[in-house]
Q: What sequence folds into this?
């Protein structure tokens, strides 16, 4: 995939093109899942969450943030690096939560147990999440008016410097404002684990 085709693909994703989302999933999901499996060394964690679950969570969060215009990705390598980093962070979040909960090992159920709850998610795949306007509408409803304006500008392709000039703020401050807003909303919607505590 070339730099131009990545930018075009992400523009199509940003505009809600489900075939672009499916292409992105087909291209990058195997690498994301491979990175997840390599990093999931704790057997207790593997019993609680599957690479498919983490991958879907990463892609759902990525699609929401892409639709919001958060990322300025130029190359296939940057995109893969971002997705793998998101996956690594998601694994760390799951491990921290598992450790913080200090689960009682007597409550754990073996995957081989016929009464076990299925680990793999039955939610629609990431491409379906992207075209699910309801999810995007939930994100919009949870943003303040300023955050929503910022998200809409980025979705329209307006650059950080241009937005900063309009608002009288620094480009990094504007970018961080959107990042923090999306972090908050993603945690509220359960798309990502909260970074706090």
A:
């Amino acid at each position: 995939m070339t730099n131009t085709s990545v930018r075009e693909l992400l523009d199509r994703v940003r505009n809600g093109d489900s075939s672009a989302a499916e292409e992105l999933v087909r291209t990058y999901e195997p690498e994301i899942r491979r990175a997840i499996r390599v990093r999931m060394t704790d057997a207790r964690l593997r019993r609680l969450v599957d690479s498919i679950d983490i991958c879907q969570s990463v892609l759902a969060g990525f699609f929401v943030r892409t639709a919001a215009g958060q990322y300025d990705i130029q190359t296939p390598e940057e995109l893969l690096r971002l997705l793998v980093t998101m996956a690594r962070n998601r694994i760390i979040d799951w491990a921290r939560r598992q450790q913080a909960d200090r689960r009682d090992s007597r409550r754990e159920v073996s995957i081989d147990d016929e009464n076990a709850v299925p680990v793999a998610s039955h939610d629609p795949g990431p491409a379906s999440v992207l075209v699910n306007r309801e999810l995007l509408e939930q994100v919009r409803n949870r943003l303040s008016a300023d955050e929503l304006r910022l998200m809409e500008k980025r979705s329209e392709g307006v650059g950080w410097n241009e937005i900063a000039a309009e608002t009288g703020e620094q480009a990094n401050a504007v970018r961080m404002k959107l990042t923090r807003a999306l972090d908050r909303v993603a945690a509220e919607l359960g798309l990502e684990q909260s970074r706090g505590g």
About this structure: The chain has one domain: 3-189. The chain is about 70% helix and 0% strand.
